[in-house]
């Protein structure tokens, strides 16, 4: 069993990496990009019987900084 966790900065939290990507895209001629938010994807290989609640607990304790980041769990 696998799980995929999408972690993004919460709305309102400054995203300097996203802003650097937006600026670089503009410098490369892609002027239509007005905003970029950068996040991360974590794929987990899980033992039989692991639940979405288990993955959410992993996120709360380690995988996401819930003060500034939100996460979404996708069970595969």
UniProtKB/TrEMBL annotation:
UniProt entry tagged with the keyword Nucleotide-binding: yes
Keyword Phosphoprotein tagged: no
A GO term from the CC aspect: cytoplasm
Reaction(s) catalysed (UniProt annotation): N(2)-formyl-N(1)-(5-phospho-beta-D-ribosyl)glycinamide + L-glutamine + ATP + H2O = 2-formamido-N(1)-(5-O-phospho-beta-D-ribosyl)acetamidine + L-glutamate + ADP + phosphate + H(+)
Pathway this chain belongs to: Purine metabolism; IMP biosynthesis via de novo pathway; 5-amino-1-(5-phospho-D-ribosyl)imidazole from N(2)-formyl-N(1)-(5-phospho-D-ribosyl)glycinamide: step 1/2
Gene Ontology annotations of biological process type: 'de novo' IMP biosynthetic process
InterPro entries (UniProt xref): PurS, PurS-like_sf
Keyword list, A-Z: ATP-binding, Cytoplasm, Ligase, Nucleotide-binding, Purine biosynthesis
Main subcellular location of this protein, as a coarse class: cytoplasm
Pfam families: PurS
Annotated EC: 6.3.5.3
GO molecular-function terms, A-Z: ATP binding; phosphoribosylformylglycinamidine synthase activity
Subcellular location: Cytoplasm
Matching NCBIfam families: phosphoribosylformylglycinamidine synthase subunit PurS (TIGR00302), PRK05974.1 (NF004630)
Subunit (UniProt): Part of the FGAM synthase complex composed of 1 PurL, 1 PurQ and 2 PurS subunits.
Functional summary from the UniProt entry: Part of the phosphoribosylformylglycinamidine synthase complex involved in the purines biosynthetic pathway. Catalyzes the ATP-dependent conversion of formylglycinamide ribonucleotide (FGAR) and glutamine to yield formylglycinamidine ribonucleotide (FGAM) and glutamate. The FGAM synthase complex is composed of three subunits. PurQ produces an ammonia molecule by converting glutamine to glutamate. PurL transfers the ammonia molecule to FGAR to form FGAM in an ATP-dependent manner.
HAMAP family: PurS
Family: Belongs to the PurS family.
Protein's name in the database: Phosphoribosylformylglycinamidine synthase subunit PurS
